[in-house]
Amino acid sequence: MSASTSGPASGPSGPTRRSGLRRAAVESVSGLPRQFWWLWTSTLINRLGAFVATFLALYLTVERGYSASYAGLVAALHGLGGVISSVGAGVMADRLGRRPTMLIAQLSTAASVALLGFMTDPVAIALVAGLVGMASNASRPAVQAMMADIVAPKDRVRAFSLNYWAINLGFAISSTAAGLIAEHGYLALFLGEAALVLACALVVYRKLPESRPTTNAQGGADGGAGGPAPAPVSMRTVLHDGRFMTVVGLNLLLALLFQQAYVSMPVAMGQDGFSSTDFGLVIGLNGVLVVLLQIPVTRFIEHRSPALLLIGSALLAGYGFGLTALAGSVAMYAVAVTVWTLGEIINSPTQMGLVVRLSPLHGRGRYQGMYALSWSAASLTAPLLGGVVIDHYGADALWGGCAVVGTMAAVGYGVLLRGLSGRPGAGAVARGTADAGASAGAGASEPVA
Hints:
By secondary structure, the protein is mainly α. It is built from 18 helices and no strands.
């Protein structure tokens, strides 16, 4: 081909480029069931009201005048509540159904958050904060299980990515709004979150039918024509599923890394002489990048090897936090945040797709509950681990340890996912059943009274 022939086609015109971007945007959101979008809307509304957990420490130390140690204790109890509810809510999602579990969790969250705003006794505040942690984390397994129920296997990574995008968009808006609302009194934050959680529950009640798979009279699942009854799934089944529990353990390692952004990084920046404004700018970059990049990055990774994606995301997370040891300026901290945020963007939808793939159809709630437990456990233990390492060995040792942990997780994913598609035995059957059930969609759901 001559140079003259190739020259005019070297770059797309403006209208062509815009048309391509518009087509990519449409493809990113098309083909998903209507029920998914109501679930997505409920998630966004819920995260728009996520005021209290973000500003709880400031409320206790500034508004109430309690010590930093007491604020840390309350935060730990909030995390402990999430640990307790994760598994129990997963069992409820399988036994009672996804929709009732979400409604119970959301109504309990609204009531406990509003109650917390009126508590003045330190013991009462700590106890109610634990209840808030239990209630606010209880809907997570049901939401993820319902998403797996109603979205076809080929679209799950995209669906989980869109849901994660809604979480971060809501958080970015709520964090900004909460600061303005707090100027008029912290009680408004508690009551505002309670009101938005009630709005979320209203969406679930009015727009989301139950999606839990049912067993027909012939023993088949979801209206299938006969066949053996599905094997019962208990928490013992989950704990004895070695491959899935390894996924939970590897996710715990990564969750411990990501939690350092909100626990250890502000401490390290303070020790280096940076202000709270500097930290706000740096950590705000994480939310901006997720909102801007989550959907285009997901389009790029959607049909690529989950093993390579999880290995790469673990390395980006580990070495992104490792770069913090070299940070001597706000710009370098921003570079480190950018690296581990890319790991977060890749990991979240890919990891959720793997969890669903390994979960049996009639045990999705329990499996999602155990997966959620890894995040709750990380939120409880990360502040303690980070603080101990910084106090005894310094911040640079912590960031170097993060790089080691990221490498360990990458190696673990490589070993775990080798030959996953050919896994013999019950796990492979479970994955096939799960995918078949998701393909059936909401039409296989039990009727809503």
